[in-house]
């Protein structure tokens, strides 16, 4: 296997773990929490799940970023960022930046304390808001993945 193939395989694997986790939390975990399927203490159940997955998500985002930049540099694809037809390249980079910010800066330094206060005072409102944000992130992720796979296989929006 050549280096580009290995980088691509690692990149896809990282995206599957990362966005698969977003999908699982959005479509399964948060609805189960909100219905009380995981017990009456929504916050405790969410923290138990989030605490175990956040390091997987962070590692996946790091691997996706390193392999993505490496592939662009190695194949000299920088000019694609100057063309609207390669919108999915922009979408991948922006989505990566958004999640990197959320996972490494936003969640631990900004959102965590705010969410904890709100979840203790108004759990339904806090988890409804968290669920809505996850749906937005998942939707952006699905559009980006669809565009990236279709675009990298020759489908173009003209």
Shape: elongated
Percentage of residues in DSSP E strands: under 5%
Oligomer: single chain
Helix proportion: over 70%
Mean of pLDDT: 95
How far is the first residue's CA from the last residue's CA? 34 Å
- The radius of gyration is 18 Å
What structural class do helix, strand and pairing data support? mainly alpha
Number of strands: 0
Note the main sheet. Answer: none
Q: How many structural domains?
A: 1
Question: Secondary-structure element sequence?
Answer: HHHH
Q: Number of helical segments?
A: 4
- Stretches with pLDDT under 50, minimum 5 residues: none
What does this 3D model show about the protein?
The chain has 158 residues and is an all-alpha fold. The protein has one domain (3-152). It is 83% helix and 0% strand. The chain is elongated, with a radius of gyration of 18 Å. The two termini are 34 Å apart. The mean pLDDT is 95.
Structural features:
158 residues; single chain; mainly alpha; 4 helices
Topology:
Blueprint: H1 3-35, H2 42-74, H3 87-121, H4 123-152
Quick description:
It contains 4 helices and no strands. With 158 residues, the chain is mainly alpha-helical.
């Amino acid at each position: 296997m050549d280096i580009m193939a290995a980088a691509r395989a690692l990149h896809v694997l990282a995206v599957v773990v990362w966005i698969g986790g977003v999908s699982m939390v959005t479509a399964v975990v948060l609805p189960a929490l909100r219905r009380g399927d995981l017990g009456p203490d929504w916050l405790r159940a969410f923290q138990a799940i989030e605490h175990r997955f956040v390091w997987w998500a962070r590692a996946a985002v790091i691997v996706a970023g390193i392999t993505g930049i490496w592939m662009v540099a190695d194949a000299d694809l920088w000019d694609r960022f100057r063309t609207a037809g390669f919108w999915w390249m922009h979408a991948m980079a922006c989505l990566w930046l958004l999640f990197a910010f959320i996972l490494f800066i936003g969640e631990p330094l900004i959102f965590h304390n705010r969410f904890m206060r709100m979840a203790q005072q108004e759990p339904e409102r806090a988890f409804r808001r968290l669920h809505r944000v996850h749906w937005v992130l998942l939707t952006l992720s699905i559009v980006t993945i669809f565009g990236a796979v279709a675009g990298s296989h020759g489908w173009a929006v003209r």
